[in-house]
Amino acid sequence: MLDLIGSAALTLAQAVGPEAAQAAASAAPVASAAVDAAATVAGGATTAAQVALTSGAVETGGQGVLHFIGQSDAVGKSLFVFLMLMSLASWYLILAKGLTHLRIRRRSRKFLAEFWAASSLEQVENEISTHGAEEPFAHLASHAIHAQKHHTKYGALKLEESGSTAAFVTRTIRKVIDEETARLENGLTVLASVGSTAPFVGLFGTVWGVYHALLSISMTDGVTINRIAGPVGEALIMTGLGLAVAIPAVLAYNAFVRVNRVYLAQLDAFAHDLFTFLTTGQQVADGSHERNGRTISLASHRGA
């Protein structure tokens, strides 16, 4: 292409005159050099752009959670699915139990206000029959009132009804408290298990991923720090996932245990007052009732 341009310039100069031909001949190498320089610059820019694109592709070359899961084996995929299932189960329990606690506390406050404002036990029974025993305080009061009336009217018809009316009411109250305790603590075992095992599951996934990454790197030539850092960094994602699953479960477990302890303490205090009211017709302020020189405690035998 450059030779054709130079020949055309010389031919035109010869047609004009000898001096112009000589000037054109001297200018041709200069133009050729300028064109060569421009081509070199363009080639350098193209090479730099290709290097930049290549380095960008290496930096963003599919590294991440999805890439790690996609190139992992059956064990890595199974661990990832297991962590996801643990996370879904823990968040379901957190939301469900949180809403349940809010609903129970609101209904309990309403029932307690209505209970102590009632004029007689018959009015309390009518309220429970109308609205139902939808929370632990109403459930406890319903069973205790029914037990007191049943034992007073029929006596000990069965072995579980043996003893005095106060003893039968005490056993009924303890049974209801144990049932409500089990209902409130339902699901906490799952949260505790997730919080204690999820970090180790994630750590095992990291160890498994690092092992396979190093094994594949050892079978290739030209090992560099970039080729090691990528797979190892991806394997560390499993540890992060394990911690992300465990931390909410542990925090929720501690919060629910605290809420249950406070709520059950209030239920025990109400049980003492209810027992005293059913047996003597008077409300007491302390948490025990003395009968025949003995202190009757209604607190259920729960672990700390």
What is the strand content?
under 5%
Instruction: Please estimate the helix content.
Output: over 70%
Total helical elements:
10
Uncertain runs with pLDDT below 50, 5 residues or more?
Answer: 8-25, 30-35, 37-62, 283-304
Q: What overall form do the CA principal axes indicate?
A: rod-shaped
Q: What structural class do you assign from the helix and strand content?
A: mainly alpha
- The overall pLDDT, averaged over residues, is 73
Number of strand elements: 2
Radius of gyration: 42 Å
Strand order of the largest sheet: 1-2
What is the element string, with H for helices and E for strands? HHHHHHHHHHEE
The major beta sheet can be summarized as: 2 strands, antiparallel
Q: Give the terminus-to-terminus CA distance.
A: 94 Å
Q: SSE layout and pairings?
A:
Blueprint: H1 2-16, H2 18-59, H3 65-71, H4 74-117, H5 121-131, H6 136-154, H7 165-184, H8 188-218, H9 225-235, H10 237-280, E1 289-291, E2 294-296
Antiparallel strand pairs: 1-2
Helix pairs in contact: 1-2, 4-8, 4-10, 6-7, 6-10, 7-10, 8-9, 8-10
Give your account of this protein's structure:
With 304 residues, the protein is mainly alpha-helical. It has helices at 2-16, 18-59, 65-71, 74-117, 121-131, 136-154, 165-184, 188-218, 225-235, 237-280; strands at residues 289-291, 294-296. The chain has a two-stranded antiparallel ribbon. The longest helix is centred in the N-terminal third of the chain and has 44 residues, at 74-117.
